[in-house]
Amino acid sequence: MNTIILMAADLVAITILTLALYLRRHRRRDLVVSYLGMNVGVLAVATALSGSAAGVGLGLGLFGVLSIIRLRSTELAQHEVAYYFSALALGLIAGIGVEPLWLTLSLMGLVLLVMFIGDNPAVLPAYRHQTVVLDRAISDENQLTARLQEVLNGTVHSATIQELDLVNDKTIVDVRYAVRARRSVGANAQLGFDRPAGAVAPAPRELPGSELPARTPETPEQAVPQQHTSAGVA
Hints:
Number of strands: 3
Oligomer: single chain
Strand order of the largest sheet: 1-3-2
Largest sheet: 3 strands, antiparallel
Shape: elongated
Strand content: 5-15%
Helix content: 40-55%
Structural class: alpha+beta
Radius of gyration: 35 Å
Mean pLDDT: 77
């Protein structure tokens, strides 16, 4: 009975991990298939081996063998590797079936909770990791940091020079930085409604009290008569 409960719990857990967490956040369908297939495969093998005397040892050996597999088709990011091992751990925990039952279910829930929090976009949203190629050979650390902060519009936490090309005047840097918060701009300023056509800077605004006085209508006595001249025709 516990085996059926653990298998059902594993299917629910891997569905949450792949469809509710990974697919919604990263939108990569091929890895969803990989996570599902690997989890169910590990679950089946671990369940079959759990009845033998060396079930736990073989399960841990299976975990070690699968952990050294290198996927050569496409490169995996670090968060995708984390999902990979989480799917592997879920299948192995459910297949081995640690007693009591609540402990196994708690361990599976712990894996899901860690992935939910660790890969949440709200956790350190401004932090970035990027490889930058500069069109100058900069060896001074202070100058390099200042240049990177100007280019990336952020605060540089670490900058590791991967290549310093003095011949071609080029620097390749591995940068970890935090993006600075941008100032909010009004909708009119974004669309350019506050500046005249062809102007670079916004149109100057009139100060209060600088309006010109209203012109009073002239009386007939004050009005200057206009003289009409007619040109003769030769």
